[in-house]
Amino acid sequence: MRKYHALPVALLAALALTACEDGTGTQNEGAAASTSITSGASTTGTPGTTETTGTPETTGTPETTDRTGTSTTRTSTTTGTTGKPAKKPGTPAPRTRVSCNGSNTTVTAQPVPRPLNHMLITVRNTGSTTCDLTYYPVLRFDEMQWAPQAIEDSKPQAVTTLAPGESGYAGVLLSAADGSGEAGTTGRKLTVGFQGRTPNSSGGPSALPALPAEGVYYDSTLKVTYWLRDMDQALSY
After folding, report:
1. Distance, CA of 137 to CA of 105 (rounded, Å)
2. What is the CA radius of gyration of the chain?
3. What is the model's pLDDT at position 88?
4. Is the pTM of this model over 0.70?
5. pLDDT tens digit sequence for 56-71
6. Is 143 left (phi over 0), alpha (psi -120 to 50) or beta?
7. Is residue 158 within 8 Å of residue 227, measured between CB atoms?
8. In sequence order, what DSSP letters do the residues of 134-171 get, joined into one string?
């Protein structure tokens, strides 16, 4: 009877890992080659290899998984056909007030019988926008080199504002009733200037109202009121 010698432990382990040619024997499950199959794809061909056919399809709304393992669906917050968030209607910008001047008004200058030595200047808004008569008119007869002063007592509490079709007024004291004025002369041409938002600034084109054929007499006491809404008030200074 043959005697069997004890085989080394390492050789026994190597033999245990080797499969027999006839398909019998022992396999190490931890070392055996594994075959992975991708969901939605088929595997064909030689065992031990993986072949993926087709393209995985994604339908519906994409999902995300939060930290608790719960699937959540992403939703869209866009509106309209362009996919952009709807814009809230904005507040319309306020309309800018304009200055009354020779381009948006008609201006007349007419001497009056009472009070004596007075003239009334009338400005009517002929535009389509409300305009402001700021401060007082800047008067110039012919080629005079000085401008008449304003009557400070006539200064209104608020700017005289004219809606389309409305009129504003300024009274002109042409000469001293007692004859105390100097350098009296007759004016044949009158230019009415308009001031802007700040004193002595330009408010726009001037006006050239017609004067009576005989002209208008004035002297060194020539003064003018601020622009006012009331005609009688304008002639009361």
Report:
1. 14
2. 51
3. 54
4. no
5. 444 444 444 444 444 4
6. alpha
7. no
8. -S--EEEETT-SS-PEE-GGG--SS-EEE-TT-EEEEE
